[in-house]
């Protein structure tokens, strides 16, 4: 479990599944994904997240706002299963319920995940990726101090050629010197 001023980043509970399904069914949250998820697809995604924790010892933590909301979404670290020019790698990612956007929660949680990646896991680099038009997500990457290079743009292999979301950007972050 990781704690910040306002948030807890914790492993998942059964009670997270319903609010997770609700945010995965929200077209505003899923604007930059191929489709919204059904309850079954959402539950399956939660199982994958739990299995990732079992395999790697870290993952996409469930995010709780202390004293406010038991579950607002996930923020954390993930090992992508697809192959691209920057894999294998550890990515940082986030997905929060719409009602909790624009309070700085994603950035606050992600800063804790970055510290875990570099201080605990001793990673040399983490990356973040998103569809080119997802400026809200790209803002979080910038707030974290991640850097973007057009040389790293890539076509997401999980999406069919010509798909409007296929063009992706990659941001990179290395530990600050003197850690
Ligand atoms: C992308 C996403 C996680 C961003 O979540 P968020 O919590 O709103 O992001 P932030 O932490 O950057 O906060 C957003 C804004 O709130 C502002 N803010 C408001 N109150 C704040 C506070 N108390 N403290 C800090 N920032 C605050 C921030 O300054 C920021 O604005 P800016 O980027 O213009 O500077 C969210 O929009 C989301 O879940 N989107 C859908 C899923 C998705 O696309 N995920 C990424 C796929 S790769």
Low-pLDDT regions? none
Shape: globular
Quickly count the helices.
4
Helix content: 25-40%
What strand line-up does the widest sheet have? 1-2-3-4-5
- Structural class category: alpha+beta
Give the quaternary arrangement of the chains.
Answer: single chain
Strand content: 25-35%
- Write the element-wise H/E pattern from the N-terminal end onward: EEHHEEEHEHEEE
Distance between the termini: 22 Å
Ligands and ions found:
coenzyme A
- Using only C-alpha atoms, the radius of gyration works out to 16 Å
Overall strand count: 9
Mean pLDDT, nearest integer?
97
Q: How is the biggest beta sheet arranged?
A: 5 strands, antiparallel
Would you give an account of this structure?
The chain is built from four helices and nine strands; from the N terminus they run ββααβββαβαβββ. Strand 3 and strand 4 form a beta hairpin. The model has no long low-confidence stretch (mean pLDDT 97). The strands form two sheets. The chain has a five-stranded antiparallel sheet with strand order 1-2-3-4-5, sandwiched between helices. Strands 6, 7, 8 and 9 form a four-stranded antiparallel sheet that branches. It has 179 residues and is an alpha+beta fold. Helix content is 28%, strand content 25%. Helix 1 crosses helix 2 (39-56). Coenzyme A binds next to strand 5, helix 3 and helix 4.
């Amino acid at each position: 479990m990781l704690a910040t001023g306002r948030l807890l980043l914790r492993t998942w509970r059964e009670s997270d599944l319903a609010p997770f399904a609700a945010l995965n069914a929200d077209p505003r949250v899923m604007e930059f994904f191929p489709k919204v998820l059904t309850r079954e697809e959402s539950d399956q995604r939660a199982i994958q997240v739990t299995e990732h924790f079992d395999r790697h010892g870290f993952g996409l933590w469930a995010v709780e706002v202390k004293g406010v909301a038991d579950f607002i979404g996930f923020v954390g670290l993930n090992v992508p299963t697809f192959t691209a020019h920057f894999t294998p790698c550890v990515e940082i990612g986030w997905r929060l319920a719409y009602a909790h956007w624009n309070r700085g929660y994603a950035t606050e949680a992600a800063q804790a995940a970055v510290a875990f990646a570099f201080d605990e896991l001793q990673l040399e680099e983490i990356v973040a990726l998103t569809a080119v038009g997802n400026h809200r997500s790209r803002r979080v990457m910038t707030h974290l101090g991640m850097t973007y290079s057009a040389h790293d743009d890539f076509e997401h292999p999980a999406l069919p050629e010509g798909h409007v979301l296929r063009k992706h950007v990659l941001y990179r972050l290395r530990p600050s010197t003197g850690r």
